[in-house]
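To: structure desk
From: M.T.
Subject: fold request, one chain
Message: Could you run this one when you get a chance? Sequence is below, nothing fancy, just the single chain.
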Amino acid sequence: MNELAKQAVDVLMNKNMTLATAESCTGGLLGAMITSVPGVSALYAGGFITYSAQEKHNMLDIPRKLLREQGTVSKKTAKQMAEKAAEKTKADVALSVTGNAGPSASEGKPVGLVYIGCCIDGKTIARKFMFEGSRESIREQAAEAALALLLKKLAV
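Reply: Done. Structure tokens follow.
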């Protein structure tokens, strides 16, 4: 069990808040970390794995124009993913991750570039990260950064 995930679940339980996720480059890793925590079914509304631009549009209603103009890896896309995940699941909190885990540049975006969105009670932020290492390492760093961002925002 991931320690950051346990901390996030504990805080969410104490605040009586529900959580949803929308993932791209992490491919469900964030959701797997969260669901490894016993008792999380009381608050985890579910997650979306929207690996392609098409599925970001189909599953989360991210506008095609936004995806075309900003790309699938962008701050605006991360914000929209978090907002739509919260909206569709009626969760109090939603995390999103979109980025390029490698092995090569995509859409002109470098390997390691990740945007993480966090929507809490309708207020959304997105942060840019640059991770280094293997594809798997970038995915793990991104999922853990999403949990750390959530913990930071819930502490405010």
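Reply (cont.): Strands lie at 19-23, 44-49, 93-99, 113-120, 123-130. Let me know if you need anything else for the meeting.
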